[in-house]
Amino acid sequence: MAKKSNNSFKLIMILTLVVVGILAAIIILTQATKEDAQSFENMPDISGQPILGEEAAPVTIVEFGDFKCPACKAWGENVYPQLVKDYVESGKVKFVYINVLFHGQESALGAAAAEAVWKQNSDAYWDFHKQLFDEQPSANHDSQWITTDKLIEIASNTDGVDLEQFKEDLTSQDIVDAVRLDSELTEEFKVEMTPTIMVNDQALTDPFDYEKMVEIIEQELDGE
Ligand code: CA
């Protein structure tokens, strides 16, 4: 009799531990989800922005980036190629880049140049974009390297860019407006670091966490 009640007690203890364990796991998982990404009511309005991939792709990834930012260069070299290979080429994801001006005048100049290329030939944009990041020095990136001369040089090495048109557009009102539109989006989505990566309406806490990015992409593809 004593033995039996001892067994019941053990069973209750085990069940209690299991329930506590499950509750703890749920709490930890919920918190992890919250901390891995921040949800917004909408995704950014991408009209007037450069798009890589199929426009009809069901998932949109937006990078808020800055040509002067070393982490953006690192992201473009280490995460972006995998994303393009895994999701953009198959038409599941389209990629959009929005300019952030966290490094002052040089950021603004680089952004204006990229907008000017996109305005005259959207097909030339991504080539120019990559070349500009390639020019970012790996050491001493705070030194001045985005200059009008450098931008003209890169534009002249980009297929499909009319150089005279590019120079003219660089300081035009259209381009000033395009850069301002990006700054408004940067504010609207409370961007505090570059790169900030959004998958539809969710901003990743760690832009280099590719597993988390894939997890959200797959959820969005499943319509969750
Ligand atoms: Ca833009």
Q: What is the topology?
A:
Layout: H1 2-36, E1 37-39, E2 51-52, E3 59-65, H2 70-78, H3 80-88, E4 93-99, H4 105-120, H5 125-135, H6 148-156, H7 163-170, H8 173-188, E5 196-199, E6 202-204, H9 210-221
Parallel strand pairs: 3-4
Antiparallel strand pairs: 1-6, 2-4, 3-5, 5-6
What does this molecule look like?
With 224 residues, the protein is α+β, with helices and mostly antiparallel strands. The chain has 2 domains: 2-34; 40-221, 3-Layer(aba) Sandwich (Glutaredoxin), CATH 3.40.30.10. Helices cover 56% and strands 12% of the residues. The chain has helices at 2-36, 70-78, 80-88, 105-120, 125-135, 148-156, 163-170, 173-188, 210-221, and strands at residues 37-39, 51-52, 59-65, 93-99, 196-199, 202-204. It has a 6-stranded mixed β-sheet with strand order 1-6-5-3-4-2, with helices on both faces. Helix 4 packs across helix 7. The chain is elongated and about 90 Å long. The termini are far apart. Bound molecules: calcium ion.
